Amino acid sequence: MSNYSNTLSYSNTPTYTKPTYAKPTYAKPTYTKPTYAKPTYAKPTYTKPTYSSHIETHNEDR
């Protein structure tokens, strides 16, 4: 029964590797903020009325 002592030394205990349950990575829904295109009000470019100066008209007559 001397061999029985050898069987008691369980040096080779199977190391139960815990099954690592891969956490389900829930893809976070990336809420894309609706970018409200600001209505770019085209500034009315007031074209200054160019009053033809009197000097110009006189030059044309020459």
Report what the structure shows.
The chain is mostly helical. 21% of the residues lie in helices and 0% in strands. The chain is built from two helices and no strands. The longest helix is centred in the last third of the chain and has 8 residues. It is rod-shaped. The relative contact order is 0.06.
Instruction: List low-confidence stretches.
Output: none
**Arithmetic mean pLDDT:** 74
Largest beta sheet, briefly? Answer: none
Listing every helix as H and every strand as E from the N terminus to the C terminus, the arrangement reads HH
The separation of the N and C termini measures 140 Å
Alpha-beta classification: mainly alpha
Number of helices: 2
Number of strands: 0
Helicity range of the residues? 10-25%
- Based on Cα principal axes, name the global outline: rod-shaped
Radius of gyration: 46 Å
In percent, how much strand structure appears in the residues?
under 5%
